[in-house]
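User: quick one, fold this
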Amino acid sequence: MSPPADWGSTAVDLAACGFGYLFGSIPFGLILTKLAGFGDVREIGSGNIGATNVLRARSKPLAAATLVLDAAKGTAAVLFAAHWGETPAILAGLGAFLGHLFPVWLGFRGGKGVATFIGVLLGLYWPAGVAFCAIWLVTAFATRYSSLAALIASAASVVLLAFSARWELAALFLLLTVLLYVRHASNIGRLVKGEEARIGKSHS
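Assistant:
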């Protein structure tokens, strides 16, 4: 019995998503803090493995490195898979984001996804990635809320992609934005109550 005509492309798509997941699941925040002698970042603050929580280890350089690497793994996964086409690139981006949020190595307890979201966005459509960063900076400067800046910038990215008629990317980032909002549920609750910490204070 011969394989379906689209078997090859399906295999590539699945491989791209799997590769993206494995690459995205690399817990750079955890690795860097352990190598630097700060222990397990999951035992600090919110228990998150992202840059914001790494900052609570009192290391701005490590937090910056975590931010860059968590973004870079999303971009790298997309660019690698792009050699096989747009669909594999999109699926690799999805995989990388899911890998960061739900890394198999850490019992599926990962980060909140902002840096990897940016990295995937830059890899798939860099103008939207630049717009995300600009919107984040303006919102963060105006409100001093990092979480609110990320929530607004991610939603704005979906709108920008839709206005650019990048429909497949808009659909992907709509899904990623929903997941990002779910991961920020506690932050949203504190924002509504007026209890969210501003940039430079505690909380995640």
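User: anything notable?
Assistant: The two ends are 54 Å apart (CA to CA).
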